[in-house]
Amino acid sequence: MDFSGIILGAQAAFSAYNLLYCLIGVFLGTAIGVLPGLGPVATISMLLPITFGLPPETALIMLAGIFYGAQYGGSTTAILVNLPGESSSVVTALDGYQMARQGKAGQALATAAIGSFIAGTIATLLVGFVAPVLSIFALKFGPAEYFSLMVLGLIAAIVLAHGSVLHAVGMMFLGLLLGLVGTDVSSGVQRFNGGVPELIDGISFVIVAMGVFGIGEIIANLSSDNEDRTELAPITRLMPTRAELWKMLPPVLRGTALGSLLGILPGGGATLASFASYAMEKKVSSNPEEFGHGALAGLAGPESANNAAAQTSFIPMLTLGIPSNPVMALMIGAMIMQGIQPGPSVISEQPMLFWAIVISMWIGNLMLLVLNLPLVGIWVKMISVRYSLLFPAILVFCVVGVFSINKSLFDIYLMVAFGVAGYIFRRLSCEPAPLLLGFILGPMMEEYLRRAMLLSKGDATVFLTHPISATMLVIAFSLLLTVAAPSIRRKREEAFSEE
Known about the structure:
- The protein is mostly helical.
- The chain has helices at residues 3-13, 16-34, 40-47, 56-81, 90-101, 105-138, 143-159, 165-179, 205-223, 242-264, 270-284, 296-312, 314-319, 326-337, 345-349, 351-372, 376-383, 387-406, 409-427, 433-455, 462-465, 467-484, 486-498; strands at 182-183, 190-191.
- It has 23 helices and two strands.
């Protein structure tokens, strides 16, 4: 354990400057979690340009706060008005809103907040203890192992993506192709830029992210905007009784364990964790008929699972440079823009940065616990803001953010084009997350493939003769065969249709 790194990280995390940005991050995260139609991916995409002028640890602390803060915010409106702000809060609404209708809105909110805090604390400890060990193991990876690891990550993302596997494969390949646009680093040859000078350096990650997720979300929400609001459930007693606290503890711990595991897996994440936790709690419950009618376990388990998954998804990003979900892909983009090479060397070469992020996660969770319950009234009032009044501000923010990078109108036009493409993807039920993961991992995969082939003198069997590389390729192939099985495919489609 690097105690000097922990001390440096704690000093950075507890500095007034970083505490302020941590507070800004969790506050913004809660706000966008409350508002349906916005999400951490779109918000972080829009905020990436303003992180240029911030120190690396400050920028990553704020962006991380937005991500796990959104998990808190989404539960508030799911419980009070049956309107999930986040996809991972859909399960929360099943029993949380029923509790609110029974006059237990306060207890439901407190259960969600306490479960989230416990899960966030345990998951943060996991990040702090597991990530350094995993980074030491990852230092033994060569080019062949890294290439196979990225293949495994993309395959897992495809298998766990919503909707059709074929659509997910297509989106992933499109992302890989977009990542190849620009100048070949090795040969200096321009490729796939269509003779457009502005694309010589490739397509900016910020443009793709803000277009597909920012502008695309705006168009999608305007085309299906529903201004109807559900009547707010009354809030009476806020804190659960001692009996309710003891009753919620086992689901919280089970949800934390399950969410921590699924958060690490590529393609997992908060949404999958919350649905899996709900299914598990219903199976282990002695009264499964209560679920959907205000079961405390049906609220405590999923809320703990989605927050634990949000925290542990940082482990593969910080140790291996592999994003487990679109938000982690954005975080990797932020690190690259700050001049930091994602991977196992981050912990050994920049321990202050790593530990500052880890410690700030616990600080942020404490801030969310203190802030969320007193500010419930403010969050609920935000729902009354018509999206038709909200979207112009979002659009202006996107345009200003993209223009500030290169001062280029072409970048704005390209962002709008990606926005239209993002809307079309949604209409065709093509989840854009695999595209973003492919776009981030594509150039890295190409570089590791070239290095592996150079070291092996063109022998492609190097990926199978190295045990770690071969194991990961076998797992990836097994995942593809599993999801292709008719029974597995039917169950997968049923699970996502329930979402």
